[in-house]
Write a structure and sequence with these properties.
CATH class of the largest domain: Alpha Beta
Shape: globular
Number of helices: 13
Helix content: 25-40%
Bound molecules: adenosine-5-diphosphoribose, P-hydroxybenzoic acid
Number of strands: 20
Strand order of the largest sheet: 6-5-14-15-16-13-17-20
Strand content: 25-35%
Structural class: alpha+beta
Number of domains: 2
Radius of gyration: 21 Å
Largest sheet: 8 strands, mixed
Length: about 400
């Protein structure tokens, strides 16, 4: 097989790039290790910054998002069950907002668009291997059943997530990895209940952080901070709801509608960046190169700027013969990646209870919180990062 751009990974990053390139006449083949059902069974954050929503529209995939997604102009931060302040995103960011629309739905819309255009998407591609990445003729091999198939291409895009093969194909002496692992996780529950609030509530509390989010007016997503040693089996639905209520202001807890969980999972919190994001003719994008803790929902939104830069770099190469975008991709992408790292670290530090924090740390966290709601400049900084810094 032969193509111009071989994309590894059929998550939102890989799908979005193949769709955008296809619309400009650039050929791609996308290899996904799992079945489509498996990929669409994953539940992830549901807040899209406006830049990502624009990319969905440019990819001709924005119709359902625009119909079913909810535009949110603000969110709440509750503190120790005592006060609840609203962050007016529109006011403090100079007019921007976010779209609440599940990432699973984003992925579904992208797959459907790829199908409509007869996009080359190969599922259950096993043993994907990347070859000759620093030569002018790189190629990728994979196994389908007993057959080994080879794809010759100009460029390889590593969009295969944190556990993928692409980043691991870069020699250890070239790659530098930066990491912070947080000493807690998030226990998440999805329930067919009316959301407790029309906007998101981020709740800081001595017992630990909690988040009230939603997927629609009949589907709620809630999280509580939990020790890394806990497993899903340690938490019955009743125990989850009781603990969530303890961390919310009493009036919010009083109107919380509870019900059976339809999904329950624990995720660790991690910050991670791999540099550089280019090795020869391999370009990393999305979770393959960087991870953020979910606070602030930066994951997909950080992937979006990688895709935007690669989309423009590759179309400039193929349509105008201009390689500047490819040459400076890593540097440009990493500059925005690190800003998203900073913001999700800031929000995680502001809102969580750290098991090893000193009284000094706790005073600083409280001061940071009070400063935030006493300064329009501080709120402006929070809002501009939450709605997404420009690409
Ligand atoms: N070969 C082919 N595909 C692979 C391989 C492999 N060796 N390893 C992993 N994959 C696939 C995974 O099955 C997955 O479907 O790559 C895909 C990567 O998708 P994501 O993990 O969703 O990563 P990305 O597309 O960059 O999405 C970024 O989604 O994961 C969230 O928090 C993340 O919000 C962020 C966004
Ligand atoms: C979610 O809805 O899953 C969600 C929302 C906001 C976050 C994280 C997760 O900051």
């Amino acid at each position: 097989m032969k193509t111009q751009v071989c994309i590894i990974g059929g998550g939102p990053s890989g799908l979005m790039l193949s769709q955008l390139l296809h619309l400009k006449g650039v050929e791609t083949i996308l290899l996904e290790k799992r079945s489509r059902e498996y990929v669409l069974g994953r539940i992830r954050a549901g807040v899209l910054e406006h830049g990502f929503a624009d990319l969905m529209r440019e990819a001709q995939c924005g119709q359902r998002m625009d119909q079913e997604g909810e535009v949110h102009d603000g969110f709440y931060i509750a503190s120790n069950g005592e006060r609840m302040d609203r962050v007016d995103l529109k006011k403090h960011s100079g007019g921007s907002s976010v779209v609440v629309y599940g990432q699973t739905e984003v992925t579904r819309d992208l797959y459907e668009a790829r199908d409509r255009m007869n996009g080359a998407v190969i599922h259950n591609a096993e043993d994907v291997k990347l070859h000759d990445l620093t030569s002018a003729a790189p190629y990728v091999t994979f196994r389908k059943g007993d057959e080994i198939i080879r794809i010759d291409c100009d460029y390889v895009i590593g969009a295969d997530g944190f556990h993928g093969v692409s980043r691991k194909s870069i020699p250890k002496d070239v790659l530098r990895e930066y990491e912070r692992v947080y000493p807690f996780g998030w226990l998440g529950v999805l329930s067919r209940t009316k959301p407790v609030c029309e906007e998101l509530i981020y709740a800081r509390h001595q017992r630990g952080f909690a988040l009230c989010s939603l997927r629609s007016q009949v589907l709620s997503r809630y999280y509580i901070q939990a020790p890394l040693t806990d497993s899903v089996d340690d938490w019955s639905d009743d125990a989850f709801w009781a603990e969530l209520k303890r961390r919310l202001p009493p009036d919010v807890a009083g109107r919380l509608e509870t019900g059976p969980s339809i999904e329950k999972s624990i995720a660790p919190l991690r910050s991670f960046v791999a540099e550089p994001m280019r090795y020869g003719n391999l370009f990393l994008a999305g979770d393959a190169a960087h991870i953020v803790p979910p606070t602030g929902a930066r994951g997909l939104n950080t992937a979006a700027s990688d895709i935007y830069y690669l989309y423009h770099a590759l179309t400039d190469h193929y349509l105008k013969g201009d390689d500047a975008g490819l040459e400076n991709y890593s540097e440009k992408a990493l500059a925005r990646v690190w800003k998203a790292q900073r913001f999700s670290w800031f929000l995680t530090t502001l809102l969580h209870t750290f098991p090893d924090s000193t009284p000094y740390d706790q005073k600083l966290q409280q001061t940071e919180f009070e400063y935030l709601f006493s300064s329009d400049q501080a709120l402006g900084s929070l809002a501009e990062n939450y709605v997404g810094l420009p690409f």
